[in-house]
Amino acid sequence: MFRNVQCGLAVVVLLVAAATSQAAKPIDIGSRLELMVDNYLIENTSGLRLVLHKPTKREVAVVHDAPWEGSNCCYHTVFRDGDIYRMYYLSAHNRQRPEEPVSADPLTLFRAAYAESKDGIRWVKPKLGLIEFAGSKKNNFLWGGIEALEGFGVFKDSNPNCKPEERYKALVCGGKSGVSRGSNPNQNCLRALKSSDGIHWFPLVDKAVMTKGDFDSLNLAFWDTVRGEYRAYFRVYRSGSRLRDIRTATSRDFVHWTEPVWLEYPGAPPEQLYTNAISPYYRAPHIFLGFPMRYVNRGWTESLDAFPELKQRKQRAQISLRFGTAITDGLFMSSRDGVTFKRWGEAFLRPGSQELGRWIYGDQLQNWGIVETKSDLAGAPNELSIYAQEGSWWGKSSNQLRRYTIRIDGFVSLQAPLAGGEFTTKPLVFSGDRLVINYSTSAAGSIRVEVQAPDGKPLDGFRLTDCPEIFGDSLERTVAWKGGADVSKLAGRPVRLRFVMKDADLYSLRFQ
Q: Which residues pair with 422 in a beta bridge?
């Protein structure tokens, strides 16, 4: 019996040792950029916290005031394509009054529209001459006449095996022209479109490519360059509830898709997610960033009485109560596998001041796609631009898309107060000969970096006392020690990084 106990203890020791060894396995980051959007690299911290940053409100990028655009232009997709920026969106009309006929206006049909820009700031709507509206083709429509059209999620396919005639792809909800998706679940489907130039569109295949979903928001997909597959995201109501949520599926050919799975948000409460706007971050494509619109409906409360245009809000509520009572804002989330997301509860984009066209159903519907644009400050580095919808019930007076900017990599930072703090990474393996950080400090703030062995012992020449205080504000600052910045002799070896900070933000790091 004693011998068996010894054997059992030995097995336990071996299992614990194996688990410890597995847990301590270093993370191979190579030379890729790592954003501080989660705790993935962090072993322990003291005095620091992850802080979600808010974008800066800029100018109105696009006013949807053309006669054919209606009162509801939504689901904007923006991406850079060579020397131009492309924008795709839906155009339709929202009923304002109960007595307004449902189909009296041709604007009740959703149509996909197009705009472009040379800088991501000033946009034009070219007259494409493709789709007729009110007896004329002098408009910027490129796909239309489908009542069931929900979103027009366009992307440029970076799959190396993509055919030239399929270089641009899109997912749309619904059947053929004139077929309403309606309430029949058998009509809920996604169809795939293809284009060689991003303007002229054709069915990729003559059948639905996906049927397990509600698909009543912007349905999107893209080529995942890291994992070598297409990935789609779309909205579905949780079974047994009316909770709006998101599912994802993958495909090798954009036609045959895997069984969809629900996204997971550990630690986050159940919330209504109307859209998702998920894509790989262009500077770190192994990380997915999402910008969902959160849908909140508390019913009619006294606070709603303080909002502008109360009469119109009550008129919409007579059509459907939520048209008057629901309000929305923008969220931020990130993932490293495309399924499990860290979702921030605090709004990334608040509705803002109680002006015309704000604090309404559809307000702060964020676009899909992040683009890099020039700063309006001379000599300042480029910024990231995102866009959000305003005034989707107000027609020409306020139906518009506003631009917001944020620092490159600047969605979340590991932030230290003036009193100071520090953090240590998990064991890492890197390639390159220097460490570069994206950071910001106050005049009194600073950052210092120590390189350690996996057991936490400082490495000679890379101790904290060898690192002069780094202060300032830079997207790419090379960390140096008394002996210089070269860390090539440590490449390929497991190391830890220790950051000691005060009144500072660290946004990202990478070895180059």
A: 46, 500
Among 321, 320, 318, 325, smallest CA distance to 302 is for 325
Query: Looking at this protein, which amino acid is placed at residue 443?
Result: A
Alpha helices in 180-256 (DSSP H): none
Per run of 10 residues, the mean pLDDT along the chain (length 512 residues) is 45 40 78 98 97 97 90 93 97 78 62 96 97 93 76 95 98 57 56 97 95 90 98 90 93 98 96 97 98 96 90 91 95 98 97 88 95 96 97 75 98 98 98 98 98 98 98 98 98 98 98 98
Tell me the C-alpha distance between 431 and 190, whole Å.
Answer: 42
The Cα-based distances of 49 to 334, 406, 419 in angstroms read 17, 20, 13
SS3 content of the chain, % helix, strand, coil (to 5): 10, 40, 45
Question: 26-53+413-511 belongs to which CATH class?
Answer: mainly beta
Each domain of the chain, given as residue ranges in start order, spans: 26-53+413-511, 56-409
Ranges of beta strands (E only) in 82-189 are 84-92, 110-117, 123-124, 141-146, 153-156, 168-173
**CA angle at residue 232 from 227 to 234, to 5 degrees?**
150
Q: How far is CA 270 from the centre of its chain?
A: 19
Q: Which two tokens stand for residue 222?
A: 């893209």
The conformation of residue 238, written as its DSSP 8-state character, comes to: P
Token digits of residue 181: 């998706």
Query: Contact at 8 Å (CB) between 209 and 215?
Result: no
> 56-409: which CATH topology?
Tachylectin-2; Chain A (2.115.10)
Report d(CA 405, CA 58) in Å as an integer: 7
- Please give the pLDDT value at position 108: 64
The label of the residue with tokens 């192994």 reads 286
What does residue 177 show for φ and ψ, rounded to 5 degrees?
-50, 130
pTM of this prediction?
0.92
Q: Can you tell me the distance from the alpha carbon of 46 to that of 184, in angstroms, rounded to the nearest whole number?
A: 55
Q: Which long-range contacts (CB under 8 A, 24 or more apart) does 478-483 make?
A: 478/434, 478/435, 478/436, 479/434, 479/435, 479/436, 479/437, 479/449
Q: What letter represents residue 22's amino acid?
A: Q
